[in-house]
Amino acid sequence: MAFELPQLPYAEDALAPHISAETISYHYGKHHKKYVDTLNELTQGTDLADKSLEDIITSTEGKVFNQAAQVWNHTFYWRGMGPDGGGAPTGEAADAIGSAFGSYDAFVEQFAAEAGGHFGSGWAWLVDDGSGLAITSTHDADNPLTHSQKPLLTCDVWEHAYYIDYRNARPDYVATFLNSLVNWDWVNQQLSG
Ligand code: MN3
């Protein structure tokens, strides 16, 4: 069974004006799709073709890892956002963020610093590292699953995620992600899953 590009959980223009339909059209329709296509080319006819993305991510390195992790990371990123999202968390996430960071404002400050300060292409993450919630970032395609951490939320900080809408102003994109896009219901599902 070939790997498939999962459907977006909303219309391509649903996150506008925060993330434009043009950005989603390229980011989902071209970048994310290309990772799926290349993963299929690399794994076709091999034992990896029938494995889960998670199995590939935790058992391979190099080209195959990069494609599989980018497929997984993008699917996770889309699901962690939604129209009318952002702002203070609800439910279990509210309690967990309070315990780990002291307050939602302190969480925002740390997440924005990690995502804004990450050098080069990569991902900023909210994870459960086994002792509670933590903020981290990974380079290129890397994913918390390879560091024995449970991903809860991610922000894509590759330039292709924000350059059309924000040009070089990554901090503005990250602030908008936190204020207007985070889908806390998704985070709560990860916490209870
Ligand atoms: Mn991307």
Q: Could you characterize the architecture of this molecule?
A:
This protein has helices at 21-43, 53-59, 62-79, 91-101, 104-117, 163-166, 170-181, 184-192; strands spanning 122-128, 133-139, 150-156. The protein is mainly α and 193 residues long. It folds into two domains: 21-79, Fe,Mn superoxide dismutase (SOD) domain (Helix Hairpins); 91-192, Iron/manganese superoxide dismutase, C-terminal domain (minor pseudopilin epsh fold). Strands 2-1-3 form a three-stranded antiparallel sheet, sandwiched between helices. Helix 1 runs antiparallel to helix 3 (62-79) and helix 5 (104-117) packs antiparallel against helix 7. The longest helix has 23 residues, at 21-43. It is globular and about 50 Å long. Residues 27, 31, 74, 156, 158, 160-161 line the site of manganese (III) ion (MN3).
**What order do the SSEs take from the amino end to the carboxyl end, as H and E?**
HHHHHEEEHHH
**CATH class division of the largest domain:** Alpha Beta
**Tally of DSSP helical segments:** 8
Secondary-structure-based class equals mainly alpha
Note the main sheet: 3 strands, antiparallel
Low-pLDDT parts are: none
For this structure, the CATH topology of the largest domain is: minor pseudopilin epsh fold
Strand content: 5-15%
Distance between the termini: 26 Å
Distinct small-molecule ligands in the complex: manganese (III) ion
Radius of gyration: 16 Å
Mean pLDDT: 97
- Spatially, the strands of the biggest sheet line up as 2-1-3
| CATH homologous superfamily identity of the largest domain | Iron/manganese superoxide dismutase, C-terminal domain
CATH architecture of the largest domain: 3-Layer(bab) Sandwich
Q: What count of structural domains?
A: 2
**Residues in helices, as a percent range:** 40-55%
| Number of β-strand runs | 3
Oligomer: single chain
Cα shape: globular
